[in-house]
Amino acid sequence: MDCLKGKRFMCDICNAGYSQKSNLYTHRRTHTGERPYMCKDCGKSFAKRSTLNLHRLTHLEVKPHPCDLCNKRFALRTQLKRHYVTHFNIKPFSCEICHRGFVDNCDLNNHMLIHTGDAPYACQSCKKVFDRPSKLKSHMFTHTGEKPFVCELCNKRFIRKSGLQYHHRTHTGEKPYICEVCNKGFMQKASLKVHHLTHSNQKPFSCEQCNKQFRTKSDLNKHAYT
Fold it and tell me: Signal peptide location in the record (predicted)?
């Protein structure tokens, strides 16, 4: 085939061809899941060194790409594009098995591991398995009690960086998740999802005793104690 001319190094799994052996080695990681390049700041791993170098920019203070809808800033243009669609609830990548939608193809690929059971990183303490080494590293803190992420304002410590990021909002008042119906802002995405129910007639939580329905589980629990 013309498309394989000059490509002497062939993948024995999918027959993809490459002109350089190093590119074949990098490609093989898409089959093995190997991610040898790890970020020292957050533990996230990557198949390519170049991808790690781009990721490192996200830990810098310089964020030259602002969102023109909410003024949140990002280190990478790709991060801005990913963020931008959250304002419109666009999820163009859909799981063929459970039909869950995702913002980008990378999230979809990670999600598919749930269905395939391909989670090669196992915790030696409790045998729980993970699809990425960064998730395993974060999980290990639950056994050691280590909380490496520290708030510089109040010194409160957290196991995960995401927990620290949410906590920061209690100091800054930032509410990045905006309802597209009424423009009300929320600190957590889960809170926005619950709020969305107030604009609809959905009441997914039902009392087993009287069949009365509620928008949130907390409302159902309050009802149960009355």
Answer: none
CA 221 – CA 226 distance, rounded (Å)? 9
Give tens-digit pLDDT for 159-208: 888 888 889 999 988 888 888 888 889 888 888 888 888 888 778 888 88
∠ CA(189), CA(135), CA(27), 5° rounding?
Answer: 110
Host domain of residue 126? 71-146
Question: Is residue 173 a part of any domain in this protein?
Answer: no
pTM higher than 0.90, yes or no? no
Q: What's the N-to-C CA distance of the chain in angstroms?
A: 73
Pairing of strands 129-130, 121-122: antiparallel
Q: DSSP assignment, residue 197?
A: G
Residue 80 in contact with residue 65, Cβ under 8 Å?
A: yes
The domain total for the chain is 3
User: In terms of domains, do 36 and 91 share one?
Assistant: no
Contact 118, 108 (CB under 8 A): no
- List the structure tokens of 150: 């520290």
DSSP letter string, 11-72: -TTT--EESSHHHHHHHHHHHH----EE-TTT--EESSHHHHHHHHGGGSS---EE-TTT--
Rounded distance between C-alpha atoms, residue 149 and residue 156, angstroms: 8
**Residue 53 within any structural domain of the chain:** yes
